[in-house]
Design brief:
- With 134 residues, this protein is mostly helical.
- Helices cover 77% and strands 0% of the residues.
- It contains five helices and no strands.
- The protein is elongated, with a radius of gyration of 27 Å.
């Protein structure tokens, strides 16, 4: 696939794809005889993984380290696993914090809704009293 096709498929700009490769976020992309990037299934798999990891908040530095370890071969399997476990734990903690924030927001919204309902009820009572005096 060309960089334009990959860009469109994954919703990443061509500049972002080049940047990911330049900083080592994805391994070097194969090139055709003319030196133009020719994204294969493996390259696309890396892009999918990095897009997923970035959208979940995994730090770029950790992902670069993961790719570098991967490129060193099977001797780094334990280190890669440890890195992924650490990132998973950090993500779980962020999810818990976000859940707490969501709960708090829902409680606050509920209080506003209850307050607004009370205010609307009071307005309705006042309106009824006004109608009675007319």
């Amino acid at each position: 696939m060309t960089i334009a096709q990959v860009s469109q498929k994954y919703g990443l700009s061509q500049d972002t794809l080049r940047y990911y490769e330049r900083i080592g976020l994805i391994p070097p992309v194969p090139r055709n005889k003319s030196g133009i990037r020719d994204y294969d299934e493996v390259s696309c798999g890396w892009i999918e993984l990095m897009k997923c990891m970035r959208s979940s908040g995994v730090q770029v530095e950790a992902l670069i380290e993961y790719v570098a370890l991967y490129q060193q071969g099977d001797t780094t399997i334990d280190a890669r696993k440890a890195l992924l476990i650490d990132q998973r734990d950090q993500l779980a903690e962020r999810i818990e914090q976000m859940q707490q924030s969501l709960t708090r927001l829902n409680e606050k919204i509920s209080r506003y809704e209850q307050g607004l309902m009370s205010a609307e009820h009071r307005l309705k009572q006042l309106e009824e009293k006004r109608q009675e005096t007319l």
